[in-house]
Amino acid sequence: MMNFSIALRFSPNRPRVQSLLVSSLSVLGLVSGVLVSEVVRAQAPGDMMQYTRVARQIEQQRMQDYAEVKQILGGSVPENVCQRRDNPQRVQEICNRFENTSRDIITRNGMSVPKFNEITRYCQQNPKPKECPR
User: Into how many domains does the chain fold?
Assistant: First the structure.
């Protein structure tokens, strides 16, 4: 088995190594601080209210589109229907429309798609954070 560990020794004869190590740790601290602030921002009450409003609108559209697809497919909708390649043309059109409509709902409500996705991932944690919509 190979050992990939690295041992850094501090000695007065190696100021460059110490300087590099301190600089690296500073950058790491800064980057982790930015990441933590992004997660905290995702939990801001205003963001969560906006996210909840957007998610409800998207869910309403999803239910309408699902009912339409269910009717086209004769009552049974396979899981992940929009990722399937063997869909009838009309079903694929509905899937494409849903994606475009969802994007429009998100942006029309003043949110970016990446921000919506970030909060969605946050709310999919187990256990679900209490501030996420139920």
Answer: 1
Both tokens of residue 44? 């801001």
67 within a domain of the structure (yes/no): yes
Domain contains 130: no
The SS3 assignment for 2 reads coil
In a domain, 45, yes or no: yes
Domain assignment present for residue 25? The answer is no
In the block, tokens 């690295």 appear at 6
Q: Which domain does 65 fall in, by range?
A: 39-123
Residue 12 above 90 pLDDT? Answer: no
Q: Is 23 left (phi over 0), alpha (psi -120 to 50) or beta?
A: alpha
pLDDT tens digit sequence for 40-49: 444 688 899 9
Range with the poorest average pLDDT among 40-54, 76-90, 99-113: 40-54
- Find the Cα–Cα–Cα–Cα dihedral 14, 19, 20, 25, rounded to 10°: 130
| Residue pair 47/133 in contact by the 8 Å Cβ criterion | no
Q: Please compute the mean of the pLDDT values over residues 75-103 and round it to a whole number.
A: 95
Q: Measured between alpha carbons, how far is 63 from 51 in angstroms, rounded to an integer? A: 18
Confirm if 120 and 126 have CB atoms less than 8 A apart: no
